[in-house]
Specification:
The protein is mainly alpha-helical. Helix content is about 70%, strand content about 0%. It has a domain of about 110 residues. The protein is elongated, with a radius of gyration of 39 Å.
Amino acid sequence: MRARPEKMFSANRFRLTPLKRKTCAPVTGWFSLRQWLSLALLLGICSSGCTSWRQKMAVRDSESQDLVEQVRVATESGRQEQAAELLKQAVNSNPNNAAVRQQLSEFLITNGYSEEAMQQLKKTMVLTPDDPKPYIDLAYLLHEKKQYTDALKNLELGLKLDPTNIRALILKGELEELAELNPAAVETYHRVLQVDPYNIVSRLKLAALQIKQGEPNRATPILRPICHNTGATIDQRAEAQWLLGVAYGAEQRWSDSVASLELALKQRTDVSADDWYRVAYACLQANEMEKVYPAVTRALTLNPLHTETNRLSTYLTQQSNQFNIQQASMYTPLQRPGFIGQESSPIPLDTLRPPQGWEQAARLSISAGRVSTGAR
């Protein structure tokens, strides 16, 4: 094999002019200088542009805050229409300010403009997708409109961002109750109590649900402390006292039930015909007949067509007619009849429909009564 000549692949073999560092260096330096100058110029323009943008945004924020302050003054002065107009101006002057939109939505909710509030909340979600409050506020508005499925969807989104939000959890429990998902609702109320063990709203809802599920023994320990809790509102204490009476009735503790219901009635302002029928029924079971007649009278005064109270009224009227004392019309509040010389025959409890939550207790009472009669 022939030996290769030296420098076979050298530049000189092909007569190429070798590149010299001295000729390349100035060119490279010139291009670097031009690039640096261009970059510096670009940065200067961006910096001045960003500064200008920030200044504009600061001015807009300042204007929005001034308008918000005027809204506060107008609201406190009772000028609601002016306050609404000022808030709209604040939003229009800075449409990307999520805080101002949130304030506008809260104002609209407070003053009953639910549709407008929902629109603002949806826009706020776009601006601040990581804020749970707009989702939860929207869920409450949807709940008021009975759009329960959409309300639950927004609640779930809000709870993903804030899993321990008590306000969201309580509404979630209510929606689960409406869907008859009672075990899920119980779990949700327990989640609230894990965050806030003394949350009275959740305790009341949990106790009511346990009574509904036939577990009054679980409800009574929750309710008793609330009845004497000075931190609870008067309405909350009255509600706890009433639910305690319902729980006692479900456990056939009729005398305790009557006492608790009567205490609750002293504090409650919204008493219905159903409530007075419950009192009358408990008094019948406790054999406190002197309290039955006033309760029946109150129920018929509130609702002359109340079916179960009329059934009880008819029976009591029949008893009084047997002794020619007085007659009570189905539509006239019943006065207590007086029985001369002998007692009336017992009320046939099996002909009366028990109040809600006492169905099981009533069946047990009737069965026990029949057994004791047979034993005699």
